[in-house]
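Example record for the data management plan.
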Amino acid sequence: MVKRAYPKGIFPWFEQEGFIFWFCTHPRMLMQPSEVYVSKSMRKVLRDETFQIRQNTAFEQVMRACSEIPRGRENESWISERFIEVFLALHQEGVAHSAEAWVGNELVGGLYGLKIGQVFYGESMFARQSNASKAAYIEYCRALEVEGIKLIDCQVPSEHLNSLGGRILPKNHFLQLLASLQ
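Corresponding structural encoding:
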C-alpha cells in the first residue's frame, strides 16, 4: 500500500489508536536535487569535512533518532513502532533509504525517505549537532541528482527546507508533476 500511495501524493502522517491517518497536504513543499541551496557557511562545513556522510549504513538508527524528536501539540512523534517496522521492510526491499552524518563512530544527523521512480519522498530528519542534518541533506541531494532523481517531495512547508531551496506548489500542480515522473 505504501509504495502505491506515495506516487499519488499520499503519505501516512500518524497513527492513533491503531489507525493510520493518510494525507495529501496542500500546499506541498518540494525541491529539485540540482537546486539545493548551499550557504557560504555550509560550503565551509562541507569543505572542512566536518561530517562523514554515508548512505544506508544506519537506517534503523536514523528512524529511531527521528522518532525521538518531540513534534506537534503533545510533543509526540508520529513515527511509531509500526511505522518503523514498515519502513525497515521497505529498506530491506531497497525502497527506503537513509543519509547519515557521522563524527567518528557517532551518528549526529540524518534523514530517511523512499525512492520510487524519479522521486525521493523525504520523511524526516534529525540533528544532534549543528548543521549535521543539513550536511547529510545537501550531500544526499547531490547523490540523488547523479542517480537521476528529479524531485524531492518534502511534504510539509518549513523554514528549514525553504532555506535549503525548497519551494511551495499548490497540491494540484504537485500532483501533475508527480504523475509525469512515474
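Summary line stored alongside the record: The mean pLDDT is 92.
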